[in-house]
Amino acid sequence: MITINVAMAVVLAVLYSVGFYLLLQRSLMRILIGIVVLGHGANLLLQLAGGPPARAPVLGTALPEEFADPLPQALALTAIVITFALTTYLLALGYRSWVLTGRDEVQDDVEDRRVAERERPEGSMEEDAEGPDDEEDPGSAAASDRTDEPAEVSGSGAAR
Amino acid sequence: MSTREPVPFTQWDEPEGEWTLPGACPVRSNRTLMLEAAARFLFPTVLVFSVYLLIVGHYAPGGGFPGGLVAGLAFVLRYIAGGESEGAEIGSRFVVRPPVLMGLGLLVAVVSALAPVAFGAPVLASAKVTFEIPLVGTVDLVSSLVIDIGVYLLIIGVVLDLLRSLGSGIERDAREAAGEEAGP
Amino acid sequence: MSTLVTLPVLLPILGAALTVLAARSARIQRLIGLMVLAAVSVVAAVLLVAADRTGPVVAELGGWPAPVGIVLVADRLSALLLLISTVVTLAVLVYAIGQRISDYGRETASTTFHPIFLLLSTGVSLAYLTGDLFSLFVAFEIMLAASYVLITRRTNASRIRSGMTYVIISLTSSLLFLTTIALVYAATGTVNLADLAGRVAALPEGLRTLLSMLTIVTFGIKAAMVPLHFWLPDSYPNAPAPVTALFAGLLTKVGVYALLRTQTLVFPGTGPSAVLLVLAVLTMVVGALGALAQDDLNRLLSFLLVSHIGFMLFGLAVYDARGAAGTALYIVHHITVQATLFLVSGLITRRTGTVSIDAMGGLARRAPMLAVLFAIPALTLAGIPPTSGFVAKLALLQAGATGGAATAVVAGFVVLASLLTLYAMVRVWVRVFWGTEKEPLPDDDPTDELVVGTARASRPMYAATVALVAVSVAIAAAAGPLSAVTEKAGSDLMARTPYIEAVLGREAVLG
User: Fold this and answer.
1) Kindly report the CA angle at C439 between C435 and C443, in degrees rounded to 5?
2) Of A45, A77, A132, A160, which is least surrounded by CB within 10 A?
């Protein structure tokens, strides 16, 4: 079993708490930064899981017992790659949201609100139709017929 | 060569063609001369470095993914210097669509993962060939280099696609939005 | 034989590469997608037969033996789930192709749809087959990354909104998973599941409980277990019908599979688990009650999906061979029937032009075919004899009855949740298919057009739906041999030795 020193434990605690705090914000940008910070925390934890820092890399320049454990390093590399990909994806999503709605906030579940506010289960549709539309940005209806998201931009480029 | 007209003295230092890849920003007011000049020299250098990373990756830090990212960064540099017209295309005469690079990379990687089966080895197994090259010395060629090449191509494709969709795509959106506002 | 285990993972990647390269021809893309999934189905069937006859089939990647290398393992459970998942994926692909043809025309190729669809299939296959905790993480990431793209393709404001919720929740659960892996590695020094089985037992009790709870939370989010289910009814209904069907059929079930695998292999208990029993009851009841409050047909089905995750958790919580067998059988049944229901819902909403149950009515006269197509999976989900749902629920109830007093009480909740499911389904049936026809609403919600689609359903869409209904009938018809396999799978899971022996060799079990 690997133990951890206090300094690293404090760094991890800070990274995780900052990450989760940012994750609870409304703005997608802050959430994105939160996820990046959390990812760093998780990767640091993976590194520490391999043993104490400042050991030799597996390059054949040190004795086998002085090697750092290479497996957590490989795992952290893979995790970094995955976090990289998903961060760019979230950025694209945030941009798309900004184009469509003019903001990058993570919003509440509209239908859930509607169900909760409904007094009778058989509520008439005339009342219901008002609900979601109030939240709609006037410009979004015009924007929503443009269906090419960033990934689709590549699609339109490929069709040339 | 001998039949060429003598170059007038005043023009002797003008380049006859684009001897480095162009990186001129189409919008004049946005040009950054230092960056453009630096990008011309750095672009091929960084590409060579990325290939170096790709090759040494089996025994030293490097490999397909870092190599691909570094090569991608070369294109990012050119995109920043030259604007959207340059960034997403590999050279002005050799245009490859990013999805093709991604598809090719993925194909190379998967085929090289399956190839050992044809020789009776398990999937993803690798072999090593060692040979002597005069003046260079002993060279170890590992078959898993092929999978790294696949990853390298894939990552370049991904970075180029990101440049195209998130870089010039956003610029185009912004231009269209500006055009709409200026219009009727 | 060991090469065969890698094919369900490698073939879809190969297909994805080829479909990217064939971006100009919709016909070739379709052909590649269908051929790859058909081939994987055949491979999965062969693997199931092999695993049933001779025990787990193991592939050591690169020739590196476990626990150093990465292994892929196909035992009875994973081969069975792989087979049913691939068959459902194939049917959904046929449906999606039909929908693309009727929406965008026959010649519209896409650089994203087919490759992403196949990558999703890769992730699902890898999640079932991997014998390694970190590869499981990678499998989840492949699967989820593909699902992020599928759920936000053709974006509008509403799809972006629900997509964000989905992506953020999934990313959080992935990072929790990564943390769990780091802690597990720090504690044991391995990420191989079979190796972990031996080493975790040597850990102190408290640490073992912590790690076990972390995996339950991580996979619980992915499986949409109450109280970690909020994202599901919010995000799934906004996607196009085939995407929702695929997610509902497969993604949550992969979470349940991961839970089943880790809880039986790595963190074995010694009797019914109180935590899981409580979670199972909560999931069953909250999901079913949530479904009753809904007006949106897809949301109603999503809540029922949550409710039925509770059934699978119950089988796991009983913690004996019968319970595990019941869960396995239930997963097989539920993958098919839930996907079918969402596909039928896609056909219904296409016909009526709305997702609101209130706005539908009298559809039985106009579309008797749809009425039959909806009735069969609806009754199957509720578990009316002689459907596959009845067989699966009977297996769970038997496990509950023999598991002790606590599980017998929870078995009562299984019956309750089934009745609530039946009530919800009958209510949908009465309001959608009987009563008076209503005028289609004026299109006041711009999201409707994308979720519902405007063009008429094409023939492949009906064919795929009918095929899936046939599969679920076939599951009921083949209940005997199928439950024989799941019972053996259940006792394998509890005994643990066949899996560990196949991965690490005989000495590991004896020592």
Assistant:
1) 135
2) A160
CA pair distance C491, C496, nearest whole angstrom: 8
Beta strand spans in C104-232 (E)? none
pLDDT band at B11 (very low <50, low <70, confident <90, very high): low
In the structure encoding, which two tokens stand for residue C281, read together?
């009851």
Residue B57's SS3 state is coil
Helices (H), C353-440: 363-366, 368-382, 388-403, 405-433
Cα separation, B28 vs B11, in Å, equals 24
Check CB contact of A127 with chain C, cutoff 8 Å.
Answer: no
Is a pLDDT exceeding 90 seen at residue C381? yes
SS (H, E, C) C458-479: CHHHHHHHHHHHHHHHHHHHCH
**CB pair distance less than 8 Å for B100 and C21:** yes
Chain C CA closest to residue A140: C157
Mean pLDDT, rounded, for C327-344: 95
List the subunits that have 3+ CB pairs under 8 angstroms with C. A, B
Mind listing the pLDDT tens digit for each residue in A73-92?
Answer: 889 989 988 988 888 888 88
Residue C297 neighbours by CB distance under 10 Å: 25
Separation of CA C289 from chain center: 22
Look at chain C and count its residues. 511
Tell me: pLDDT of C453 over 60: no
Q: Does A33 touch chain C (CB under 8 A)?
A: no
Would the CB atoms of B107 and C111 count as touching at under 8 Å?
no
Q: What is the DSSP letter of B62?
A: -
Q: Give the pair of three-digit tokens for residue B164.
A: 């195209």
Q: Cβ contacts (< 8 Å) between C2 and chain B: which residues?
A: 122
In this structure, what token pair is assigned to residue C199?
A: 């080493």
Q: Quote the pLDDT of residue C221.
A: 94
CB atoms within 10 A of CB C415: 13
pLDDT value, residue C445: 47
Query: Is it the case that residue C165 has pLDDT exceeding 80?
Result: yes
Provide the pLDDT confidence category of residue C276 given band limits of 50, 70 and 90: very high
Q: Do A149 and C152 touch (CB under 8 A)?
A: yes
Rounded CA separation B8/C52 (Å): 86
Measured in whole angstroms, the distance separating CA C311 from the mean position of its chain's CA atoms is: 13
The predicted model gives C376-384 an average pLDDT of 92
> Is B166 in CB contact (< 8 Å) with chain A?
yes
Q: Quick count: other Cβ atoms within 10 Å of Cβ C420?
A: 20
Dihedral (C-alpha) C384, C385, C389, C391: value to the nearest 10 degrees?
150
For residue A48, give how far its alpha carbon lies from the nearest alpha carbon of chain C (Å): 8
Rg (C-alpha) for chain C, rounded Å, is 22
Kindly tell me if the per-residue pLDDT of A139 is higher than 60: no
Q: Which DSSP string do the residues of B66-79 spell out, in sequence order?
A: HHHHHHHHHHHHHH
Residue in A closest to B66 by C-alpha: A81
Side-chain-side CA neighbours of B131 within 13 Å: the count stands at: 5
Mutation pick from B65, B100, B102, B110 vs chain C, by most beta carbons of C within 10 Å, is B110
Handedness of CA C256, C262, C265, C269 (dihedral sign): negative
Q: Predicted confidence band at C172 (pLDDT cuts at 50, 70, 90)?
A: very high
Q: How far apart are the first and last CA of chain C?
A: 28
* pLDDT one-digit tens code per residue, C318-334: 988 999 999 999 999 99
Q: How many domains does chain A have?
A: 1
Q: Tell me how far apart the alpha carbons of residues A144 and C158 are, in angstroms, rounded to a whole number.
A: 9
Asked if residue A135 has pLDDT above 60, the reply is no
Residues shown for chain A: 160
Q: Name the residue range of residue A73's domain.
A: 6-118+134-151
Angle ∠(C39,B122,C85) on CA atoms, nearest 5: 30
Q: What is the mean pLDDT of residues B84-101?
A: 59
* A59 inside 8 A of chain C by CB: no
